[in-house]
Write a structure and sequence with these properties.
- The chain has no helices and 23 strands.
- By secondary structure, it is mainly beta.
- It starts with a strand and ends with a strand.
- Strands 1-3-6-9-13 form a five-stranded parallel sheet, with no helix packed on it.
Length: about 210
């Protein structure tokens, strides 16, 4: 029996005793060509390979509860199974949530929270803007939430986008901040002048 964890390079399992591969964060594939291997709870990604777990003539191998992302395939689809009797289940992808930069605003203005995600991601997210909470849909990697001016207090505002996870994607949370600036009270004053019809005279206008 072998157990491999906290490994950061590609792994090849090709014979001998049963092996468990768990809790790795990797950017290289796992190749299995023996029986009785368990691949559990890993976070594996690459932009070079079409599959990230390769079951080459493997048998009775369990690939479960991993976060998998290959070039063009994610979750269970990132496993290439050419063996027999293997179990592939509950492998998911990261939604790769992101909030586009939000410019500071003045009180009395509304704001739009623009959400981006992995191109194929579709799901419902919770959006927290200060004390205001709402939900919105992200479809094919894009979504937004409109926040009215009366929901925004003056000061620094924390924005959180929270995804609870579903059958294809793991949970994810991202956050950012922006500032609601207080309005500055202003007054316009003009100096009184007198003049004769047909002549010109300057009027002094002061903004305070």
């Amino acid at each position: 029996y072998n157990e491999i964890d906290s490994f950061d390079k590609s792994i090849s399992v090709d014979g001998g005793c049963a092996t468990t591969i768990s809790n790795n964060n990797m950017n290289a594939p796992i190749t299995v060509s023996t029986e009785g291997t368990s691949i559990l709870g890993n976070d594996i990604s690459t932009d070079k390979d079409k599959a990230i777990v390769l079951l080459d003539s493997a048998s009775n191998t369990n690939v479960d509860s991993n976060v998998l992302a290959a070039n063009g395939a994610k979750g269970n689809d990132a496993v290439s199974d050419e063996g027999t009797g293997n179990t592939i289940s509950n492998n998911k992808a990261k939604p790769e949530l992101n909030i586009e930069a939000i410019s500071d605003i003045f009180e009395g203005q509304s704001v739009v929270i623009v959400i981006k995600a992995e191109n194929n991601f579709t799901g419902t997210v919770n959006v927290q803007v200060g004390t205001f909470n709402t939900t919105t849909s992200v479809v094919n990697g894009s979504g937004k939430a409109d926040v009215a001016a009366d929901k925004l207090a003056v000061g620094d505002v924390v924005v959180k986008v929270i995804f609870a996870g579903n059958e294809k994607y793991v949970n994810d949370t991202v956050n950012t901040t922006f500032t609601v600036k207080a309005k500055i009270a202003t007054a316009i004053k003009a100096t009184a002048v007198t003049t004769t019809y047909g002549t010109s005279k300057n009027i002094v206008i002061t903004l305070t």
